[in-house]
Amino acid sequence: MDNIAISIKDVSCFYGKNEALKNAGIDIPKNSIYSFIGPSGCGKTTLLRSINRMNDLIESFNLTGSIEINGENIYELQKVSQIKALRKNIGMIFQQPNPLPTSIIKNMLLPIKEHYNGTNEYFREKVIEKLKVAALYDEIEARLTKTALSLSGGQQQRLCIARALMLEPKIILFDEPCSALDPIATLKIEELLRELKKECTIIIVTHNMEQAQRISDYTAFFYQGEIVESGKTFDLFNKPQTELLSRYVTGKF
Questions:
Q1: Structural domain range at position 24
Q2: Which tens digit of pLDDT belongs to each residue from 90-146?
Q3: Under a CB-based contact definition with an 8 Å cutoff, are residues 232 and 213 in contact?
Q4: pLDDT digit string (tens) for 13-22?
Q5: Is 113 a domain residue?
Q6: For residues 243 and 60, is the Cβ–Cβ distance under 8 A?
Q7: pTM of the shown model
Q8: Segments of 16-96 assigned E as strands
Q9: In a domain, 180, yes or no
């Protein structure tokens, strides 16, 4: 289907003999926010990190089934150059902000200078553009040569998002990006995600039920390595089809 960004089919994931995910299958529409919810250790992050093949870095990891992006099974890619190209097009934001211990502008330039050639003026314009998209430029305009570690936690997280945007990704993966942030910083991140979905497809792992309801178009509920329910967020939270999900969203778990 033309409107599907990612198609996950019968995916099972193993760490050695431990099966972390069992026969997962969902379609993720383009330009949507898709939340993964469920208790800790139920396979959410394993699936998220499989979408850009980050789990390949774990020696004991193995995946069966297929994850298709634009109709191509990414687990059939064999060349290092192909996998690098895949990861270039899929941004990833982690639970803890991870700016490098250098200036704000150098944080922003590092990813783009590895992949593109251009003048210093072009690069600087690109930095300003992405910082504005992340609603951060006005706050730090006079501090671009200062260390990124001087920013607040919320600003650091938006810097990491802006840095990921330098490569113009079509998909962005978020692993609990607001769990370490205060409510005001969380609100700014959520507003940013709503804007980003106009250009990108977004998947977010979150333990925050209210956040999932506020920002996501679709939700998948994971439990003990299985996707129990998936579909439109409104339907999952207001008309759960299983007792398990009903108990989870009402806090009776």
A1: 4-98+169-249
A2: 999 999 999 999 999 999 998 887 777 778 888 899 999 999 999 999 999 999 999
A3: no
A4: 999 999 999 9
A5: no
A6: no
A7: 0.94
A8: 18-29, 33-37, 61-69, 72-73, 90-93
A9: yes
pLDDT at 121: 86
What pLDDT does 35 receive?
A: 98
Residue 59 pLDDT more than 70?
Answer: yes
Amino acid in position 237: F
Q: Tell me, what amino acid is at 124?
A: R
- Give pLDDT, residue 1: 61
Average pLDDT over residues 54-59: 94
Classify the C-alpha dihedral 30-31-36-37 as positive or negative. negative
Contact (CB, 8 A) for 166 and 130: yes
CATH of the domain at 46: 3.40.50.300
Count of the separate structural domains present in the chain: 1
Average pLDDT over residues 202-217: 96
Alpha helix positions (H), 120-249: 120-133, 137-140, 153-165, 183-196, 209-215, 233-238, 243-249
**178-to-48, 97, 151, 207 alpha-carbon distances in Å:** 16, 9, 16, 10
Is residue 67 in some structural domain?
Answer: yes
Cα–Cα distance between 250 and 86 in angstroms, integer? Answer: 38
Answer whether residue 130 is part of any domain: no
What phi and psi, each to the nearest 5 degrees, are found at residue 87? -65, -30
β-pairing verdict for 90-93 and 171-175: parallel
